[in-house]
Backbone:
């Protein structure tokens, strides 16, 4: 399922998925845009995470206050507030700001945590393989390794122009949502879903809910950022993906990929 979003979301909260709806994602997901000076309060009885995509926001929760600033999602790592069900949260914008909001059923209590940019640092995946055709930036914010109490996994990927990410092709039983931004914003990419493909644009949302393989590519000239959030299944949490065996050979740094010599190919 693919939702081609508007060029810009309206101010306020725009829901894109709800637990139990037709998306089958088994989690809430939406976009929150705040005009400078505007506030948003939330104390839902759900586990929640608020990721700052861009802008300047003051996070307040459980007697804590912190100011967060992110000029853009390509060059700067995120700020994320992660809270348990029922924790009261207030967000106040100091400039026009955009956040993604994630929520899921989880009765487990856990201490709220703010993830600062320095702990969401860039990881270069794919480097040294595939002639750099799938070198990309991955920022994993939390998963079972650092948030074992959560029912979510949250992260970001930046795909360089003309390159691939989420590659080699892989799949997993747990539902996942991708949400996209492009630089420049009129860019586009391709999301493969099993044997089908979707063209993705600025503010597109893709739901991966049927164990499909889901590699991605960005059109030449356009950097592609996407947020990814996975919903752990009961008694079947997400730990790692399952790669398609016939394509795993490309991960070998010594793999011979045609043409064997770029210099020869350019003669």
Residues:
């Amino acid at each position: 399922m693919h939702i081609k979003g508007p060029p810009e979301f309206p101010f306020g909260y725009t829901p894109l998925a709800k637990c139990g709806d037709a998306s089958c994602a088994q989690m809430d997901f939406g976009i929150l845009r705040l005009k400078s000076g505007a506030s948003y309060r939330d104390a839902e009885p759900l586990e929640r995470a608020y990721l700052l995509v861009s802008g300047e926001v003051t996070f307040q929760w459980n007697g804590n206050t912190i100011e967060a600033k992110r000029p853009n999602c390509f060059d700067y790592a995120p700020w994320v507030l992660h809270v348990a069900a029922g924790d009261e949260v207030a967000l106040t914008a100091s400039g026009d700001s955009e956040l993604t909001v994630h929520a899921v059923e989880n009765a487990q209590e856990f201490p709220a945590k703010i993830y600062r940019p320095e702990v969401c640092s860039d990881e270069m995946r794919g480097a040294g393989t595939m002639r750099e055709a799938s070198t990309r930036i991955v920022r994993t914010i939390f998963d079972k390794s650092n948030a074992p109490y959560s029912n979510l996994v949250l992260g970001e990927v930046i795909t360089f122009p003309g390159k691939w990410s989420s590659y080699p092709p892989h799949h997993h039983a747990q539902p996942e949502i991708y949400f996209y931004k492009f630089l420049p914003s009129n860019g586009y990419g391709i999301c493969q879903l099993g044997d089908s493909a979707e063209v993705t644009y600025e503010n597109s949302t893709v739901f991966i809910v049927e164990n499909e393989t889901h590699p991605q590519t960005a059109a030449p000239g356009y950097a592609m950022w996407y947020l990814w959030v996975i919903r752990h299944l009961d008694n079947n949490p997400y730990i790692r993906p399952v790669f398609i065996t016939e394509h795993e050979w490309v991960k070998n740094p010594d793999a011979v990929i045609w043409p064997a010599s770029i210099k020869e190919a350019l003669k």
About this structure: The first strand starts at residue 2 and ends at 3. The first helix runs from residue 262 to 265.
